[in-house]
């Protein structure tokens, strides 16, 4: 899973550290984020082609400020310090760092490239960059040259090229730095001598070999949710261990229109062994009479565990469980490499006592890389580009009691939203777009007759990660098409409203 060409990013707690990793990966160079305290021997053992010292909230002037073993700078490995990283380089190598005071900068700034540098190849001066810092390098260490300055900051960039030490006061990883990608590219290819061999094809080859070695002759189980992560993880593991893998797909009856069929067809066409369990009636029975959102979630989760346990028992001896954990989850939780199953699980919350070992083949990938991997593995676009969908499914989009009739109604309305958004070519620009059944009825008039029917709400949001979201400014004619189709094609509905709240203060789902 881990290629030979490696860049290590030492994390000092910067808000943009994940973005640095994204930018490096975009250059087809593999990288990992590691804590700044990682022991020197561990770093040497990984033999990185280069090190990037991230930004961070601390000041090198503070007692006990985060630092590195200065020996790390004597190994001949190229180093790029960004913001705090640059100040740390200056501090450790005999320069002087001072508090920015009135020179503190936040935002877009023009810098002049005042000295030639490998980092500036292909970039015209002046160029606009994103600054966000308190401290400044006041004096560069002996042997360093200043390579860029802004009207406010003399040392906007510095370097000691013979030792391959580079420092940037600004953030090349954020989109506001016009030449940021080029600067990172130059560091990787011109300074570190990277080749750019991180491709999904090479990732597959390495992963398959590693999974084979880890699993041996044991049996593996994958629980499919219908989402992109669990599907891609399952197909990748199947490449490695073939028939030793069984996929379990529990249909809880709360899926979107055509979803179960699409997952089944895809997995079967790829030759992945699949156990399909239609447990719709069980789930609906458990939800009868329940109106509290948390209670609905709890019951769906528990029922899922029960079905999962029954099937796992029937399958016999299973040692590994595939999980579609992604790199952002790993970075955020700081999870150790091997862990036992806890009650919280991507697919639905699996029991602790099952003692299955986790197989997480996507744990070093970002979401867009998973999509690329899915396409490379032959998964169809509609699975690869599927929007996120909550584990409890339509149960949390039907307010009040969930009944089979309401599920059927919402499914029809939701399919219309999906179809129209896709036809308008907006599906990839949106994080999610779906219908909700608030469970209220209002008076309408259709064909000269009074109606008293359901209202459907439509929600479409833009988001990077689901943590915050902005309501999507969908074109009015698209909204009109959605509304008129829903009232025409779903007889139980006479009114459609559009949700124009962002997250916060709302959440994306209604329950
Ligand atoms: P909220 O509604 O909290 O949702 O703004 C944020 C994102 O998470 C999804 N979501 C879930 N995903 N299990 C999941 O796997 C769940 O129980 C769940 N609840 C919400 C939601 O669709 C959105 O993308």
CATH homologous superfamily of the largest domain?
Class I glutamine amidotransferase (GATase) domain
Individual helix count? 14
Q: How many strands appear in the DSSP assignment?
A: 21
Which segments are poorly predicted (pLDDT under 50) over 5 or more consecutive residues?
335-348
Could you tell me the mean pLDDT? 91
> What's the CATH architecture of the largest domain?
3-Layer(aba) Sandwich
Shape descriptor: globular
What is the CA-CA span between the terminal residues?
38 Å
Q: What is bound: which ligands?
A: xanthosine-5'-monophosphate
Helical content class: 25-40%
Total separate domains: 3
Estimated radius of gyration: 27 Å
CATH topology of the largest domain, anyone? Rossmann fold
CATH class of the largest domain: Alpha Beta
Sheet with the most strands? 9 strands, mixed
DSSP strand content: 15-25%
- Name the structural class: alpha/beta
**Largest sheet: spatial strand order:** 2-1-3-4-11-10-9-6-7
């Amino acid at each position: 899973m881990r290629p030979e060409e490696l860049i290590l990013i030492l994390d000092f707690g910067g808000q943009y550290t994940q973005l640095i990793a994204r930018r490096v990966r975009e250059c087809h160079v593999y990288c990992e984020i590691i804590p700044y305290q990682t022991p020197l021997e561990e770093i040497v053992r990984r033999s990185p082609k280069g090190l990037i010292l991230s930004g961070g909230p601390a000041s090198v002037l503070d007692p006990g400020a985060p630092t590195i073993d200065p020996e790390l700078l004597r190994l001949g490995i190229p180093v790029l310090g960004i913001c705090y990283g640059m100040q740390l380089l200056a501090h450790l190598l005999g320069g002087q760092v001072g508090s920015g005071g009135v020179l503190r900068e936040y935002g877009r700034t023009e810098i002049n490239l005042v000295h030639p540098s490998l980092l500036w190849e292909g970039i015209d001066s002046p160029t606009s960059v994103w600054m966000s810092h308190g401290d400044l390098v006041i004096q560069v260490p002996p042997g360093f040259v200043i390579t860029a300055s802004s009207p406010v900051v003399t040392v906007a960039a510095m370097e000691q090229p013979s030792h391959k030490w580079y420092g940037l006061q600004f953030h090349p990883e954020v989109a506001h730095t016009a030449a940021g990608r080029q600067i990172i590219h130059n560091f990787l290819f011109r300074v570190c001598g990277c080749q750019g061999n991180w491709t999904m094809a090479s990732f597959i080859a390495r992963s398959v070999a590693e999974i084979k070695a880890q699993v041996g002759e044991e049996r593996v189980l994958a629980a499919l949710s219908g989402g992109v992560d669990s599907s891609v993880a399952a197909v990748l593991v199947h490449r490695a261990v073939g028939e030793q893998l069984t996929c379990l797909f529990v249909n809880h009856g709360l899926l979107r229109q055509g979803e179960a069929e699409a997952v089944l067809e895809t997995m079967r066409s790829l030759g992945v062994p699949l156990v399909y369990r239609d447990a719709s009636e069980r789930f609906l029975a458990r939800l009868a009479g329940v109106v509290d959102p948390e209670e609905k979630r709890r019951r769906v989760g528990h029922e899922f565990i029960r079905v999962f346990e029954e099937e796992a028992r029937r399958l016999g001896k299973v040692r590994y469980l595939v999980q579609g954990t992604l790199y952002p989850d790993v970075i955020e939780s700081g999870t150790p490499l091997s862990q036992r199953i806890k009650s919280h699980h991507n697919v639905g919350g699996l029991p602790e006592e099952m003692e299955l070992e986790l197989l997480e083949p996507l744990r070093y990938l970002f979401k867009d890389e998973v999509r690329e991997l899915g396409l490379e593995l032959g998964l169809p676009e509609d699975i690869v580009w599927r929007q996120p969908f909550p584990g409890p499914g339509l149960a949390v989009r039907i307010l009040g009691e969930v009944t089979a009739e309401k599920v059927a109604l919402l499914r029809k309305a939701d399919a219309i939203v999906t179809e129209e958004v896709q036809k308008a070519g907006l599906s990839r620009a949106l994080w999610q777009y779906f219908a909700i059944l608030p469970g209220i009825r209002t008076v309408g008039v259709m064909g000269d007759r009074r109606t008293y029917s359901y209202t459907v709400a439509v929600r479409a949001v833009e988001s990077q990660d689901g943590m915050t979201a902005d309501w999507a400014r969908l074109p009015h004619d698209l909204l009109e098409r959605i509304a008129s189709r829903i009232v025409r094609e779903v007889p139980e509905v006479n009114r459609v409203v559009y949700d124009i709240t962002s997250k916060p203060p709302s959440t994306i789902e209604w329950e």
